[in-house]
Amino acid sequence: MKPHWTIAYKESAQMLRSQRGLLWLLAFSGLLSAFSLLLVSNAELSLLDNAQVVYMMSGTVLAAGALLAAILGSDAYAGEKERGTLVPLLCAPIDAGALPAGKALGMLTAWGVMFAVATPYLWAVGASGQNLGAALFYLALFGTPVVLGFGYLAMAVSARTGSVLASLLSTIALLMLAASPLLIGPGLRGTVIGRALDAVNPFAGALNTFDSVIIDSEPLSAQFARLLLVVAWLVLCLLAARRRAANPNFQ
Amino acid sequence: MKKWKDILFVMATIFLLAAVSAAAEAPLMLDLHPDHANPSAPVMGDHLRFWSTIINTGADPIEGLVAWISLVEIDPGNEQPVDLEDWSAHKAVTGATLEPGQSLRTGWPMRLIKGGDYRVVVSVTDRGSHTVFTSPTIQFHVRQKPVLQSGRVLPVAAGVPLLIIGLMVFNKTRQHRKKAQL
After folding, report:
1. Which of A81, A117, A172, B80 is the most buried (most CB within 10 A)?
2. Inter-chain touch A129–B147, beta carbons under 8 Å
3. Cβ of A19 and B45 within 8 Å?
4. CATH topology of domain B27-142
C-alpha cells in the first residue's frame, strides 16, 4: 500500500473507530436533530417552505464540515509535533507530498461520513418539497472544495506555527467570518461591502449557490462563477499547505 | 351667490382639465395581469407568474428604464412589504430603452413562500423623468400548509444519534474484549 493511502486509512479510522471521532459524529447528529425538532415543534418555523429548510440545513452541514476540517487540519502537523511523532514521520522514507495527501484524504473521508449522516436529515425535512436531489448534489459539489480548503488552510497554519491552539484559533476565526452569511440576512449582504465580501468568500459562494438551486431552481450554468470561486479557494489553500508542509516548524 | 357658484364651477373645471391633461401627458402606459396558468387558489410552494406591459405613449424615447416588482403583505396586523429574496430570482428589469410606440412585455415569476394575503405591483421609472409610474395592483391569497412532516422528522432525529451511540457501545465492547483476550 502506498504511504499516502496508509496515512489516509489511519486518519479515516480515527473518525469511524475511535471514540473521539464517533463523539464528534454524535455531536453533529445531535445538532441536526435539534435543528429538525425545532422546525417541527415551532408553529412559525414548521410553515417554512421545504426548500428553505433544506437550504438552511445545507448551510449548517457545510459549516460543521468546515469546522471538522479545520480541527483535523490543525492537528495535522502541530498535533504530530506536540505528540513527538512529527520528526520520525518526516524522517520516514516517504514522498514529501504523501503526508499532506494522506491527511487530506482523511479529511475527505471525514467529510464523506458527515455527508452520509446529514443525508437522512435532509431527506426528512425536504422529501415533500422540491430540489432535494439538487441540494445533495450541490452540497457535494460546492461543499467538498470549501471544506477541503479550510482543512488545507488549517494544515498550512499548523505547519507554520507548530501549535495546535494557534492554528485552531486562527482558522476558526476565519471560518466564523466566512460563515457569517449564515447569520446575516440577505438585506444586509445587499450592501456594497456585503456584495464585495460575497464575491471573494467561498463559503458565501456555496451558500448563494444553495439558495439559487434549491429555492430558485436555477441551472448549473448560472453557478459557474461561484464554482470557479470555490475551486480557486481550494487551489490556493492546497498550494499554501504544500508550501508550508515542505518546511514545517520543528521548534 | 350665483356668481360665487359660477366662479367655483370654473375653477373646478380648470383643475379637472389640468389633471386630465397631466394624465394624458404621462409618457408611458403600464399594465399588469396574472398569467392564465396561475392556480385559482394558490397554496404555499406554488408558482405564480404575472405579466407587465410597458408602452411608450410619448413622443420621445424612454431611456434607462427600470421596472421592478413589489409585494406587500396585507394580513390584518401584519401589513408589511415582503423581501422578495426567496420569492423570486427575477425582481427587476434595468437599462431597457423604449422607442415611441414600442412596448416591453415582462414576465414576473414568483414562488409562494408564506401563506397570507398579498398585493403585487410593478413600478417603472426612467433616467430622465422624476416620476415613478405604478401598474394596477393584483391581490391574491396564499393558503398555508404545514410543509414539514413530523412523522418523517422524528424517527430520523431520534434514530441517527441512537445508531451512533450503538456504534460507540459496540466499539467499546470490542476494545474491552480485545484487551481481555490479551
Report:
1. A81
2. yes
3. no
4. Immunoglobulin-like (2.60.40)
CA distance B49 to B54: 16
Mutation target vs B (from A16, A35, A36; most B CBs, 10 A cutoff): A36
State how far the Cα of A5 lies from the Cα of A99, in Å rounded to an integer: 10
**Closest CB to A124 among B146, B156, B165:** B156
pLDDT in tens for each of the 251 residues of chain A?
677 777 777 777 777 778 888 898 999 999 999 999 888 876 566 667 788 889 999 999 999 999 999 998 898 888 877 777 777 777 777 776 777 888 888 889 999 999 999 999 999 988 877 788 999 999 999 999 999 999 999 999 998 888 889 999 999 999 999 998 888 766 666 778 888 888 899 999 999 999 999 988 888 888 999 999 999 999 999 999 988 877 776 56
Q: Which ipTM was obtained for this model?
A: 0.83
Q: How many CB pairs under 8 A join A and B?
A: 101
- CA dist A147 and B71 (Å) reads 37
Please judge whether B147 and A218 are an interchain contact, meaning their C-beta atoms are less than 8 angstroms apart: no
Which cell numbers in the block locate residue A3?
Answer: 504511504
Q: CA of A140 to nearest chain B CA: how many angstroms apart?
A: 20
B162 in contact with chain A, both atoms CB, cutoff 8 A: no
Q: How far is CA B179 from CA A22, B167, B172, B174, B182, in A?
A: 20, 18, 11, 9, 5
